[in-house]
Every structure is written in C-alpha cells, then in structure tokens.
Specification:
It is built from six helices and no strands. The chain is an all-alpha fold and 186 residues long. The protein is elongated.
C-alpha cells in the first residue's frame, strides 16, 4: 500500500502539471504524504507509546504544513488562473479514488486505535474524499471552462489537511500528556 501511494503520488503530480490542475497537485501531495507517513507510522507500531505519539505529532505537523502550502499556492494560482485539462484531471481522479477507497477499506478496522494508527487511517480517508472533489471539479471545469472549480477544490483539500492535522496533533498531545502523567506517578 505504501509503494502504491508513493508511486501514484508521483504519477498524479506529473498529471497535475500536464493537466495544469491545482486540485490534482494538491491531491498528489496527499498521496505522497500518505505514503511516507504510513511507512513511518507502520514502523512505529512496535515502538513504545511515547514514541508512537511523537510520530503522530510529527505526522500532524507535516499535514498542517502541506495544508498551509496548498492554500498559499491556490491563492497565488487564483491570480494566474488557466483552466486545466478537465478530461485528464477527471481520469486521474477516478484512478486515484479507486486506489484510495481500497486503502481506506483495508484500514477501517484501525480507525479507533492510538493517535499513530488513527493518523494513518485519516490520511487514507482524506485521500478518498479529495478524489471525489477532484472528479467533481473536473466536471465543473469542463462545464464552466474556468479554473475556479479546480482552485476551489485545491483549497478545500488544503482545509481537509488542516482539519485532520488538528485532530492528529490534538490526539498526539493528549497521549503525550497521559504518558507523561503515567511516568510521573511511577
């Protein structure tokens, strides 16, 4: 699953540049982030609770930085808007959705675990939601002939990054406080 996310992330970023789609580029960052964060998260499964919570905190901060960078670029792009290639954008979005729905279904049993495991599931869920938005944006770009649906979806994906980053950071900090409190009582 990690290799699939990283590999398709590279394909999608190239497709984003070819199609001139900010939504695809934002989604590709999600794929690449998901692949790398999942790899680190899986490695952390055997670590102690403090180390797993620290990894989750780093994952949340990373996701937050992705969100802020996508929002910044979307604003810049709004001033230089060129409609993307809607057909290519939608086609890549459909393939990405199939990959991410499969990953989210595989990870669903783990969505209630510790902050580290939960962050892995949230990344996969976010990918699938973002893919639906990319496909909708491609349809709206084709219908309107403008770049605005693409830019709007890139911004929405960024907001989804920020929302999930807040949840992951909150959970990780809670677990770190609990771990610290437990060590203080020993």
């Amino acid at each position: 699953m990690v290799a699939l996310n990283l590999g398709f992330g590279v394909i999608e970023v190239i497709g984003g540049f070819v199609a001139r789609s900010e939504a695809l580029k934002a989604d590709s960052l999600d794929f690449l982030g998901d692949g790398s964060i999942t790899l680190v998260g899986l490695l952390a499964l055997g670590w102690n609770a403090k180390a797993r919570a620290t990894v989750a905190l780093a994952q949340g901060l990373f996701l937050g930085l992705l969100g802020l960078s996508v929002i910044g670029y979307a604003f810049w792009r709004a001033w230089h808007a060129v409609p993307p290639e809607a057909g290519l954008m939608g086609g890549i979005g459909v393939v990405a959705l199939l990959i991410n729905v499969t990953a989210a279904l595989v990870l669903t049993p783990f969505r209630e675990g510790d902050a580290n495991v939960r962050s892995i599931w949230l990344f996969s869920r976010n990918d699938a939601l973002a893919n639906v938005a990319v496909i909708a944006a491609a349809a709206l770009v084709a219908w309107t002939g403008t770049a605005w649906p693409d830019i709007a979806v890139a911004a929405v994906i960024a907001l989804l990054f920020l929302h999930s980053a807040r949840e992951i950071i909150w959970d990780a900090r809670k677990e770190l406080r609990q771990e610290s409190a437990m060590r203080g009582t020993r």
